[in-house]
Task: inverse folding
């Protein structure tokens, strides 16, 4: 942490800053220039977080040099995390595809989709039972009934299952049925939900918020991990920009950036990122090539009848074609699928 | 709603689109050009929301012409909403200032701040008991204890009180103590929380999400209103952009845009928008001039000791000075303060 | 400037960094923590700009603490700059309004608009002779013919005149006719044009780029000033965000931010920022209240026939009404109009 | 084009809109709903661009359904454009790499880099002789001297050469020396320069502006093409967002979006997009996988001594390694390299 003093600071206020730093058991290193005086502060960052050095008299501003997240930080755990979901590995040299409908609509729709997912090579079935929708008049999900259909689909196909929760109440219900809990973009900073998810004993997939920086995202993961649950998967799903030809802008660079900052596994969701069926195949190939650990893909037995997000869903044939196209890319990066 | 057909659509698929529209009891109007064929759809938008016409074969895309929110829409209630909080009016010709600390820290800190708020002319005391913080290692709020201090401060000063809730659990607790419930930027699309807030009988102030469009914001208000609680106040607090010299970018135009779209009252929060104490006074004047219904301002008896967001808090003298500077602007726009 | 070393840097590489710094006649101050080692560098920033310390072995990154612009910097000239355009002052306690059509279309249109501008209290007539248009098939401006009409309008009304230039060729022509040269948002980083504008002896109004940070904007101003022309006016005209209900997002905070960083005068353009006629009056009031030095407003005798940007133009009556509404606000901030 | 009428439009104004449309030889199709009345307009868009139907009385707004660019539009030329630069093909089944230093610094530096570029498999040498730099105090380029070194490097290696021009003056000089003219992000809407580039008989590579939408970018290409030069190459180099861990955000989706809208070839520049050496290899692979036609990569014999952008430059060994890693990906997508 670096403290930048104001240009015409008083000696007294300067001493005061030093006293505050040293009073906390930290060390201050000075750097005086003609126009700028800096104080480098050395010590445990978490203690400092509860103080506000930038409010001390004659302090101009404070620059954070190191990260505030610790458990998610690669500096403190250099080996990549591989999460074992009952035999299905996320991370390491496995490439995992999570596929399924945006929303669970009926027993038959889900089972049909699950079979298509399995046939295409997916290892995990996604399906929304609690849907976060912009308008209250849109379809909101089947809730617990949907979870039951998911459990039946797992029974029938052997696929692991993942579902999004949008509240503590939904989390409580979902944890009884599914293998992985998903926290969506709109809830990335629903800190109470994150803490609850930190207290369960199932992996959590955390999607990036619509305008979250990578550092905020890793701090959100830290919320889950600091409660005891270190099985966190990160999912890049596009950020909001001024560009309108795609629903969001897939930040493909997030994958190598995350690789350099964290040991957690990384999934890419090209369906939500682009919102356009025709772009899913090229973006999936890009995700494989950039070394993501897996993909989340929307499929639907009959996209033109889907109750939500059909425009970006693939039908079973298209999904099959997609994974066939992806296989040589996955081999090339040295992963198993 | 306008449906744009693909360039080389088949007659059959075109007929199918028409049949779907008419099957729902809606009317289709055609417009065929050399390169583009459009179908204007007339009827109740909410029924259409559950269908996905853009997935019909040979449909290129669908353009929404009118809004999906109804209760929040000025078209359906042209008169401005004035919310009466036990005698304090929000909206109409009253100008209201909500002031207080970012976080409630202690009984004394809050009481001292409440007195300063009252002395400066504020009618409502703000204070955070449940704090949404980026890092789990930052101070998280006093929770119910903080709510009690707030109720005591109301007792002592006569100010009405507002607090942010970050979960259904917090909402349940807060509704027993405070006069207005606040839902913060990070929870603007925490739809479960919005629905719960729609079932209480106290006003709700809904802050704009960090990257929410105005339409999404009004749809979030619609979530609250559609559950029965029509006393919603909107609060602009800055959006996320690439500019880094302010914490967020205050979208001052949101005020006239909202005026043209909704009847709900509008508050501006220059403290969170800018993150810099020195910018609060000019931005507050701008908010008055642009015809906002009020301001939310952070104050602290001793900002350099504040446990959160001190850099943007005013001390009692500065708050007093601010309201003194604002009074002639408030008079000029024809409001009472 | 602060140099952050990589976590496991070698002694040798560390020494090398110190040698490079000292070899340039600068001073290095060390700050070693458990996880992070920093080097504060003290000396003339401009010399450093030509070196790349972040490329030295084992350097993690470099943090810029102070600004790279000097002539535009308030630290080096604390008194506000007032520009005298042949008797019309921009800055100081004068409030200036520049009004006129987006594009000069004909002699009569311009003269009629100039009379309306004058009647409403404008002191400067704007008018575009060279139009930067997104599509090559849109109207591109009357070029030199338009400049002549502007000069005639000045003759007839006594208003000073400003026009945008989009190339060195246009600059050469315009400087012969107009009182102020405008460089538009799309050319804010057309550095060759900036340098040319730095060699003329007329004031230059520099609009902010669509996604320029305030620091980049001030560096662009520095390009003009470093060539000898210190009469630069800054014009905020909205930045690009994800919000679509206004054409751009007026960054009203830019005014106080600029006040804290530079001595140059600041104009606000609510017409281009919002793109919607109905929002111009509230945004103009906000600009006055936030202490801008003036406004640029689009007017047109007959906006529904304007060849460009008519949707945001005011007709003469509306402009008259606008300035009447603004007068009490301008008085309140202690300015003359 | 669709015209949306205001809610309470008058019959007279409605008739007027119809008259205007039909007066231009276009056809109007009506669609009247309970709350909204639409008019579909059919006919030549370019004629309409010079009119402003949204300014007609009682018109609420106008929605553009089709694109304003024509020569760049895939609808009007479905076959992909392949540009032949003296034997080197850009587009089709060739994969092209343009490599070289950000700035030409000396004869020896350039020649050494050219040899490295060639050794690694690049077919085109990039090098900046005119540098657009944020600060006027940064190194600005060797100008014509740099162009001469480039021509010498071509002589020595057989590589084709590309350089950026930042003004009409620079274009005039560069066209005498280089094989491809580059127009950079900051000049994407320098329309005068685009028009000049449309009058030369060499290919032009047009980089996307920092906050340009894809439609604006294609309109900028249209500026060049409408002057007669149809050999335009598009280069995605990242857009500006709130994310700070990369210099810009590479919009990888731009590649499939462009493929669906235009026939022009597409290059990706991961060096400028990310600004970080370590991210260039994964992003290059993503670009190959997403089916870009080529890459632009910064290399430097000694990046730690580069006068500009060294932090993102690869040294000769790293470049060699990069292309070795890319070869199997390039083969996999069925291209030659």
Result:
């Amino acid at each position: 942490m670096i403290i930048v003093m104001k240009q015409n600071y008083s000696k007294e206020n300067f001493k005061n800053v030093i006293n505050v730093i040293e009073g906390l058991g930290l060390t201050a290193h000075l750097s005086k220039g003609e126009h700028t005086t800096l104080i480098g502060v050395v010590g445990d960052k978490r203690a400092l977080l509860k103080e506000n050095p930038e409010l001390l008299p004659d302090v101009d501003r404070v620059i954070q040099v190191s990260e505030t997240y610790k458990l998610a930080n690669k500096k403190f755990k250099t080996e990549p995390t591989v999460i074992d979901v009952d035999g299905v590995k996320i991370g390491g040299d496995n490439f995992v595809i999570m596929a399924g409908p945006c929303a669970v609509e009926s027993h038959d729709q889900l089972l049909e989709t699950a079979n298509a997912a399995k046939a295409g090579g997916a290892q995990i079935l996604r399906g929304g039972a609690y849907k976060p929708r912009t308008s209250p008049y849109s379809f909101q999900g089947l809730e617990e009934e949907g979870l039951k259909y998911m459990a039946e689909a797992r029974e029938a196909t052997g696929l692991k299952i993942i579902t999004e929760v949008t509240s503590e109440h939904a989390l409580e219900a979902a944890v009884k049925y599914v293998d992985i809990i998903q926290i969506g973009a709109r809830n990335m900073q629903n800190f109470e939900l994150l803490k609850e998810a930190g207290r369960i004993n199932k992996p959590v997939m955390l999607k990036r918020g619509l305008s979250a920086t990578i550092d905020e995202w890793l701090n959100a993961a830290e919320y889950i991990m600091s409660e005891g649950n270190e099985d966190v998967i990160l999912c890049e799903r596009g950020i909001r920009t001024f560009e309108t030809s795609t629903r969001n802008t897939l930040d493909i660079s997030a994958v190598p950036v995350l690789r350099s900052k964290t040991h957690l596994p990384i999934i890419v969701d090209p369906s939500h990122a682009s919102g356009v069926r025709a772009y899913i195949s090229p973006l999936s190939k890009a995700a494989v090539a950039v070394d993501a650990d897996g993909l989340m893909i929307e499929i639907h037995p009959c996209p033109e009848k889907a109750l939500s997000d059909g425009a970006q869903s693939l039908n079973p044939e298209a999904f099959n074609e997609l994974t066939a196209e992806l296989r040589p890319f996955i081999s090339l990066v040295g992963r198993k699928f």
About this structure: Chain B touches chain A through 47 residues (CB under 8 Å). DSSP finds eleven helices and 14 strands in chain B. Residues 202 and 325 of chain B are 32 Å apart (CA to CA). The radius of gyration of chain B is 23 Å.
